[in-house]
Design a protein that fits this description.
The protein is α/β, with parallel strands linked by helices. It contains 19 helices and 37 strands. The protein is elongated, with a radius of gyration of 39 Å. The termini are far apart.
Length: 763
């Protein structure tokens, strides 16, 4: 019985008295037990006498004094075997198909819908097996047959005939769903009629019953999407194009029949994984990275059991993919080649199956940057063979269901760059085969679940650019196969000493290649880079709240990027950080409170391209130069920024003459000496030169005017004197030049001088 006094199957009458009302509830409750657990006598009686009943429908039943009389019951089989089954069936009837034992396999959602028939208007039955839907319809028809009046003269249909037909045939999913919905509709209307009493209640009560039930169930469907739903509002459904139906009642776009396909038409033939890979490479101009899943392998070969369940698996896959198309506005996708073509869903754009000629067995679903918009369908978790799921770069919203954790074969899950929200479900830790998990650039909140430490095969975890908080679980950092861990741009807190130790704990050769914990709120001392990580390339802990000194440890030689900028670090830059064979490409220690001098080992790195130690304020002493180190070995250096410190001494000529140098910023220091002109002619790639706010003396080298790549020049606030080089003023490539705040002679460039409105020396 429903909460408002509605019934499941039993007769019910509205009462005007409270005692009678309570009796109604009792009758309703008993009717449920009576109907669901009833024997199949009506069913089998209808089965055995179907032909006789059909004849009576045509000729009418026997009459006595003009009044119809009930037909005698069909003879029954009371044999020992039939009694052992716990049922009675007519002589000559086949074995019972829909028994009470089968009802135990009904899903909770289907049982709920049978108990409250008005919920059928909003419940989704796409996930229910066709046999269960047909069984549910048989339950209703048994009740109708049992309580049907005798056949009247001229009657062309009867409930028992409908029951016999429903028992004998095998309904498709669409037929069973339509039959059950019609029966549920009739039952809901009957309950609404009971609530409409001219003397006691207005008709609004019946309307409220239906409308409130539909509203509530529609909300529940959105919440139950995690489990097995594919809800869609009527408003959205009305916007969909008119669709045709195939034999499984999965709505498909009208398409050309297979027998009408032109000879040589390859569009109906599913492409192999290698063909799809080559197409993607041609479109992108680069090779597709072979990581996480590389197409079907021996583990994906089907066995005999798979072939036996082929039709049901095909139906489920077709339902899930069609649901994805519907709920994500497939008509507006950028690429929808073949989608909803009834011939073979394995040939649809982005779908890869176990083999090129397979009709089921979806292994990969890849629709990145394709314009998908709407709620992430949780029914995707029903693709139990799926190895690779990539829906990145779309406009999907909603939450991630814990049901994705049941996908034991899934290796790659990429949902990057969407609008997903809520908490990351810890149930994902049950997806034991997962190697690549990318949930970055969404709106997830809460803690990073420690249950992800169960993913023993995980190689890449990217949850950057979300709203996660709490501490970074050490168990996740300790995964033995982890290669990439990015938690950047969140609100994570705590210290990083424990997680960093887990990334490279003693006794294990770490597989780590990238660690990015930047733009969070981590505090405490800065962690040491794991020394036993021979493949480590990137270590980024910048833009946090860490305090203390940099560890005096040597990182692995493989390290390419080290970033610890915008923290509260103090102390000197350790010379131990820069081993002679270190392959460091980028160093960023800017925005801290470091002091001391620049280590000689820093200016001896042969592979470094970018050095940024700006904004520390207290780094002092001279820049290591000739006689101490050979700066010429830094031939790869492209950018050197040591601005806003307390550096002294001359500008090293070898630094200026590096062949690949593009940016040199030593502004706001205490450099002295002159601008030597002997190496400026070698700085052919120099684009930006900023030496403002120092104590440089002497004249401006004329060679600066011959640098064709120079676009930004700032020599303001020094002690320069002498004439302004004409070549510098007339240089066509300069976009900004500021040489103000010096004692320069402008007479050499004519009477015009600086442009109107500019300060002395600013052009």
């Amino acid at each position: 019985a429903g909460p408002g006094g509605g019934t499941m199957f039993g007769p019910c009458r509205a009462s005007r008295r409270g005692l009678a009302g309570r009796a109604v509830f009792l009758i309703v409750a008993l009717s449920l037990v009576t109907l669901v657990s009833s024997d199949a006598d009506a069913e089998e009686g209808a089965r055995s006498s179907a032909s006789t009943l059909a004849a009576r429908v045509d000729n009418g039943p026997p009459h006595r004094d003009g009044a119809p009389i009930a037909s005698p019951p069909a003879p029954v089989d009371t044999s020992e075997e039939n009694a052992r089954r716990g049922s009675v069936r007519p002589v000559g009837a086949s074995a019972i198909r829909f028994s009470a034992e089968d009802e135990l396999h009904f899903s909770p959602r289907l049982v709920q819908m049978l108990r409250r028939p008005c919920e059928a208007y909003a419940r989704n039955v796409l996930d229910e097996p066709a046999l269960h839907l047909q069984h549910a319809a048989v339950i209703f028809l048994r009740h109708k047959c049992r309580h049907a009046p005798p056949i009247a003269p001229g009657q062309t249909g009867h409930a028992c005939a409908e029951l016999a037909n429903a028992v004998e045939i095998d309904m498709t999913h669409g037929e069973a769903a339509a039959a059950l919905r019609q029966l549920l509709h009739e039952r809901c209307q009957a309950e609404a009629i009971l609530l409409t009493d001219a003397e006691t209640q207005a008709a609004d009560a019946a309307k409220f019953l239906v409308k409130d039930t539909v509203r509530r169930v529609a909300e529940e469907e959105l919440e139950l999407r995690d489990f097995a739903g594919a809800p869609m509002s009527r408003e959205n459904a009305s916007k969909l194009p008119r669709l045709a139906q195939d034999r499984e009642d999965v709505l498909l776009l009208d398409s050309k029949p297979a027998d009408e396909a032109r000879d040589g038409d390859d569009r109906a033939r599913p492409r192999s994984w290698e063909e799809k890979r080559r197409d993607a490479e041609r479109q992108r101009g680069t090779r597709v990275p072979r990581w996480g899943w590389d197409g079907p392998d021996g583990d994906d070969v089907m066995d005999a059991g798979d072939v036996e369940d082929a039709e049901e698996e095909r139906r489920v896959e077709l339902m899930v993919l069609t649901d994805l198309y519907r709920t994500t506005e497939g008509t507006y996708w950028r690429r929808q080649n073949g989608w909803l073509d009834a011939r073979n869903h394995c040939a649809w754009e982005g779908v890869t199956c176990v083999s090129p000629d397979a009709e089921f067995g979806v292994l990969s679903l890849a629709l990145p940057d394709n314009g998908l918009s709407g709620v992430l369908p949780q029914t995707l978790a029903r693709l139990h063979r799926l190895r690779h799921l990539d829906l990145s770069g779309n406009r999907l919203r909603g939450t991630i269901s814990g049901a994705f954790g049941s996908m034991s074969r899934l290796r790659v899950l990429i949902l990057r760059s969407n609008a997903l929200y809520g908490k990351i479900p810890g149930e994902l830790g049950a997806a034991s085969s997962l190697e690549q998990l990318d949930l970055s650039e969404n709106h997830f909140a809460g803690r990073l679940p420690s249950d992800l430490s169960r993913l023993r095969e995980l190689r890449m975890l990217n949850v950057s650019s979300n709203g996660l908080n709490g501490e970074l679980p050490t168990g996740v950092c300790g995964l033995q196969n982890l290669e990439v861990l990015s938690v950047a741009k969140n609100r994570l807190s705590g210290d990083l000493l424990g997680p960093a130790a887990a990334l490279g704990f003693a006794g294990r050769r770490s597989t780590l290649r990238l660690f990015d914990a930047s733009e969070n709120d981590f505090s405490g001392a800065p962690p040491a880079v794991p020394p036993d990580a021979p493949e480590l390339l990137i270590w980024d802990v910048s833009k946090n709240s860490m305090m203390g000194s940099l560890p005096k440890s040597t990182p692995p030689e493989s390290l390419r990027i080290f970033a610890a900028s915008d923290n509260r670090l103090t102390g000197a830059v350790p010379a131990e950080m820069f081993a002679p064979r270190l392959q460091l490409r980028r160093l960023d220690l800017s925005g801290n409170a470091l002091n001391g001098t620049l280590p000689d080992t820093l200016m001896s790195l042969t592979q470094v391209r970018h050095i940024n130690i700006s904004g520390n304020g207290d780094i002092s002493g001279e820049i290591p130069h000739e006689g101490v180190v050979d700066i010429r070995v830094m031939r790869a250096l492209m950018e050197f920024d040591a601005s806003s410190n307390a550096l002294t001494g001359p500008l090293p000529p070898a630094l200026v003459g590096l062949p690949n140098l593009r940016v040199l910023d030593l502004s706001n220091n205490e450099l002295n000496g002159t601008l030597s002109g002997e190496n400026w002619a070698d700085a052919t790639r120099l684009e930006r030169l900023n030496l403002r706010g120092n104590r440089l003396r002497g004249s401006i080298p004329p060679e600066l005017g011959t640098l064709r790549g120079l676009t930004h020049l700032d020599l303001s606030g020094n002690e320069l004197d002498g004439p302004v080089p004409v070549a510098l003023v007339t240089a066509s490539t300069l976009e900004h030049m500021d040489i103000s705040g010096n004692s320069l002679d402008w007479s050499t460039v004519g009477r015009q001088g600086p442009r109107r409105g500019a300060s002395d020396g600013e052009l």
